[in-house]
Design goal:
signal, 9 strands, 14% helix, Lipoxygenase-1, mainly beta, DUF3617 family protein, four-stranded antiparallel sheet
Length: 126
């Protein structure tokens, strides 16, 4: 009985740690949030040199996330909704920050309604 209680205690104390997973430095993360019809599209090179497309679009609440493990470089383009602003942020320890503001471990950019543009994804070690 005591061993069962001890095992249950170990399992229950480990559960919150699983919910707080932090990606490794080689995972490139781009997130975007806004209202309306916005889009962020990235063309990335994987470790084999193949082009991989990733995209997030408006329509859901909260941050929309696109990721790529061990991206070797690439470019992302964005388009805010015509009447609503868009916020873009990026994180990844191996990647240079292509956006103008750094806050709480993310580099960020606020895009005005109707705004569009692009940014490059570059690894720091290449």
């Amino acid at each position: 009985m005591k061993s069962w209680i001890a095992a249950a205690t170990i399992v229950l104390t480990a559960v919150p740690a699983l919910a707080q997973w932090t990606p490794t430095d080689d995972v490139m993360i781009v997130e975007a949030k806004g209202d309306g019809a916005w889009a962020v599209t990235c063309q990335l090179q994987d470790r084999k040199g193949a082009t991989v497309s990733r995209e997030v679009r408006g329509g859901k609440k909260g941050w929309q996330r696109l990721t790529q493990l061990d991206a070797r470089g690439g470019q992302c383009s964005y388009q805010a909704a015509p009447d609503r602003p868009l916020t873009i942020r990026m994180r990844g320890g191996l990647y240079a920050c292509p956006l103008p503001t750094v806050s709480k471990g993310w580099c960020e950019q606020a895009v005005a309604a109707g705004g569009s543009g692009q940014f490059d994804i570059k690894r720091r070690d290449l």
